[in-house]
Amino acid sequence: MIEVRNLVKKYGDHLAVDHLDFKIEAGRIYGFLGPNGAGKSTTMNIMTGYLGATEGEVIINGHDILKEPEEAKRHIGYLPEQPPLYMDMTVREYLEFAAELKGIGKKRRAEEISEVEDLVKIKDVEKRLIKNLSKGYRQRVGLAQAVLGFPEIIILDEPSVGLDPKQIIEIRELIRKLSENHTVILSSHILAEVREVCDYIIIISKGKLMASDTPENLERMLGQHNVVEIEAKTSPSEIRRILKNVPGIETIETQAEGDEVTKGSIREKHGQDIRENVFRAFASAGTPLLTLKVSGTSLEDVFMELTQRDTVPAAFAKKSGQKAGEGADKDAGDL
Ligand code: ADP
Ligand code: MG
Questions:
Q1: What is the distance, to the nearest Å, from the Cα of residue 243 to the centroid of all Cα atoms in its chain?
Q2: Residue 187 Cα to ligand 2 middle (Å)
Q3: Which of 24, 55, 114, 232 has the most C-beta neighbours closer than 10 Å?
Q4: What pLDDT, on a 0 to 100 scale, did the predictor assign at position 215?
């Protein structure tokens, strides 16, 4: 559906996108994950024809975005990091304008705008000026603009940045709904968001592809483990005694907090969820458990690990189509 081949973007001497290769297949929600400055927006701007590449190509349903931009763009709806909104237009006027730009015929325009307004739930504000809308509503208008024409692929650059928690939940629901009929690619620098919404993750760091796989496979490849943090009203030795026969525990670390309370970090064996067993063990010992929570999850470890290094770890090299250690010294640091 989309093929990104050997994509390079240089800003002067700065290599913002460093030989990226990946494929997007139909019917998934892709998460394009990387810290700020990783090259997400640059890549998305190239994929959508807003920016030229220094090297490489992007093929969208058989059309090269640089050589046949009109054909290629027809398959894509894009919500850039800064949504291209006109503050002095009403929502309706703006969508009419966007529909015209997309070449949606006059006859179909009204019907299609109405359909999109229903989909992203902005019908009740269609007569309002965009400048008077909340950030959440503005983002939905931007989303409406991307969805107009119902392209097969919808690309969203950090769609939830700057939204409050309620608006974030609403936007995520919308994205899920869109994914029923569209392939969605969204970028984010927040792992939790990508994990929550996406079923395939492409991790980039310093312009390089670090990994691309399902969240489950990414966790499996590094073989990391979840850590459960506890606090209990008892001594370290008593905690160890209580947890001694609980299955699924790899290691326990304890630290006394004052006279009565002990903190513990319990590493789970891979793929286990020990929380319920831990709770029951403390309950049956009659020992008050004050805190029980998962602190680091495996995917967070994977993300930290991948975005703090300059080379592709061996476990990922085959998957991501790069050689382990590739690009080690080319542009370490300095972003
Ligand atoms: P992300 O979206 O992942 O935060 P960007 O694609 O915006 O990353 O930026 C990637 C790198 O390229 C950053 O180091 C950024 O400073 C640099 N960069 C982005 N746009 C420009 C530009 N127009 N001129 C020069 N450098 C740029
Ligand atoms: Mg960006």
A1: 36
A2: 8
A3: 232
A4: 84
Q: Tell me if 54 CB under 6 Å of ligand 1.
A: no
Coil, strand, or helix at residue 30?
strand
**Taking the mean position of all CA atoms in its chain, how far away is CA 244?**
38
Structure tokens at 270: 């891979």
Looking at residue 259, its pLDDT comes to 82
Tell me, in angstroms, the distance from the centre of ligand 1 to residue 15's CA. 9
- Token duo for residue 87: 């503050």
Instruction: Write the residue with the smallest CA distance to atom 21 of ligand 1.
Output: 11
- Give, for 254, the enclosing helix (H) or strand (E): strand 249-257
Looking up tokens 């370290």 gives 236
Task: Give the number of other Cβ atoms within 10 Å of residue 27's Cβ.
Answer: 13
Greater pLDDT, 220 or 112: 112
pTM: 0.75
pLDDT of residue 192: 80
Cβ(46) – ligand 1 distance below 6 Å: no
Average pLDDT along the chain:
87
pLDDT, tens digit, for every residue of 122-151?
Answer: 999 999 999 999 988 999 999 999 999 999
Encoding tokens for residue 207?
């312009």
CB 43 within 8 A of CB 204: yes
Mean pLDDT for 13-38 is 94
Distance between first and last Cα of the chain:
31
Name the residue with the closest Cα to ligand 1, atom 15: 37
Q: What angle do CA 51, 95, 155 make, to 5 degrees?
A: 40
Is residue 76 within 8 Å of residue 48, measured between CB atoms? yes
